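Researcher: Here's the sequence for the chain we discussed earlier.
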Amino acid sequence: MLPGAPGRIPGPDDPVSTAWNALADVYDPELYLDVVSLGLVYGVRAEDGGLVVEMTMTTPGCPVSESLPEEARAAVRQATGDRLPVDVRVVWDPPWDPSMMDEGAASALGFRLM
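Model: Thanks. This is the structure I predict for it:
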């Protein structure tokens, strides 16, 4: 899990925390787990008056590679009251692997026991 990511409680003026919390409500439709727990979100930052979300997919040929980033963008925009532009960037470095999941997601998929 990335440091400072999930579990942050947003303050009224903390759009980055608000974005992380919104992304925790975006689910991979094939794995039925949220993109934050799966380790697909690499970072969220404020940049140039908006928010930048860097995320990846489990594989380059992922069937939801177009729809999942759009769902992420919509969730963040809604959570921030549509006040800020949101740029969701799909990145491939580092490549995703199961070790990036949190313990709950890994356990649910049978990768590790808690």
